[in-house]
Amino acid sequence: MSETTSSPLPSADRPDIAVRLRDALLGASFTADGLLDLLGAPAYAALARSETVPALRATRGDTPLETLVRLFLLQQPVPHARVADVLPVDACLEAGWLTRTGGEEVAATVDVRPYGGPGGEDWFIVSDLGCSVGGAGGIGSHDEGVVLGVGGASTTLAGITVRTPVACALDLGTGSGIQALHAAQHATRVTATDLNPRALHITALTLALSGAPAADLRQGSLFEPVRDGETFDLIVSNPPFVISPGARLTYRDGGMSGDDLCRSLVQEAGERLNEGGFAQFLANWQHVEGEDWQDRLRSWVPRGCDAWIVQREVQDITQYAELWLRDAGDHRGDPAEYQARYDAWLEEFEARKVKAVGFGWITLRRTGAAEPTVTVEEWPHPVEQPLGDTVRAHFERLDYLRSHDDAALLAAHFRLAAEVVQEQVGLPGAEDPEHVVLRQHRGMRRATKVDTVGAGFAGVCDGTLSAGRILDAIAQLMGEDPVLLRDRTPAQIRLLVEQGFLDPA
């Protein structure tokens, strides 16, 4: 889609004005915290549901912050004189951040949404009018080249991304630039790509308005803009993963058959990673009749990469079609056209024998291990974001377990991870529990059943004694053969280490 079919954007070549605008926004407390204080929790939450009436009622005064909320979040025309008290209005008009609406009023040309960074930074996400998720227009648009703001998927990916300092990072399909903005905090050089030139323009605005370094912006699909032989320490992508008939909406529809876009993205990432580098994606995948979905995803993993794939949600094909038809607002249009699009979606799924669609996270790490480890699991339960450190630790534990055979494991020392509790489950009054559960209160918040030995072992792991010495003591207490106990317990220790209940001391 050419930029001429959408509203004009502010100039990306006037960083001086972006700096002045940023200073004015911060001076008026147009920040995530400032919005919450002004609007109150109910009106703030209503904005996330695309309901603007509470926010409009909360901004009926004439304070600088109320002016900015009406202008940039609620897309209301505001008198020129009132804006001039808050912003360098003439400079913003010249650079295209504002436009005259006739009479003595001005209006914003883009959504600008305050966004709090992980270290308390005050950032601003720029997006097309009405497409700042939690802004005035809500989610979705019939405009093919529209650029959305930050939403739940964006923040999920930002939260699971490993945030170690790196030399070079790649944000594939950058959209409004949220992942590039995060990466700029810990990567020396950031490259951001998108098929839509409008998205690259808006990414430049997001970075400039947030006070972040400029990125290397390149237009093209998937890895096309990446030069031959060019590799990265971190690759992130929130791609247009929606599985749909056709490619009607660039911001969400991949345009390839089924889940081929996500598969191609994962398979091609391996050769673009430096040793030890991470590639992290959000993705959708098909559940095909007669095929194990976990085997399907294992086949995507490129050679030379460890992988951790987590399925967070599964929808049947009718739920899935309805979700994305509503996302684009099709349910509010002509009923016959809505039914035709719904039917086309089901027709395509049935033709490919798709019975459901999964959604989740895919993390790859380039490894020199002779036998990379691929973990595919379903975990629909609540987790504690951010999870970047949890993801990094998962792969560090893989390295540890690969380098320790059973004998080395028994000689090693372990500590119980922080905030792990033990639960005993059984009938009231019973002498012994039916089973014991270890439960995490941090990170993935896993729960796993253990036997009496496993529970006793984990409970005394404080790094002081070796695993073998602990098992010998348990054997003596339980009247068991210590040799047999040493033989059968390493598998349980491996599982507890792999899932993060035990840390090597």
- Strand-pairing-aware structural class: alpha/beta
- Helix content percent band: 25-40%
Q: Helix count, per DSSP?
A: 19
Using only C-alpha atoms, the radius of gyration works out to 26 Å
Strand arrangement within the widest β-sheet reads 8-7-6-9-10-12-11-13
Please state the overall shape, judged from the principal axes of the Cα atoms.
Answer: globular
Task: Tell me the major beta sheet.
Answer: 8 strands, mixed
Count of beta strands: 19
Beta-strand percentage range = 15-25%
What is the mean predicted local confidence, pLDDT? 93
Uncertain segments: 1-5, 133-140
Distance between the amino and carboxyl termini: 56 Å
Describe this structure in words.
The chain has 19 helices and 19 strands. The protein starts with 14 loop residues before the first helix and ends with a strand. β4 and β5 form a beta hairpin. It is of the alpha/beta class and 505 residues long. Residues 1-5 and 133-140 have low confidence and may be disordered. The strands form 5 sheets. The protein has an 8-stranded mixed β-sheet, with helices on both faces. A 3-stranded antiparallel β-sheet has the order 1-3-2. The chain has a 3-stranded antiparallel β-sheet with strand order 18-14-19.
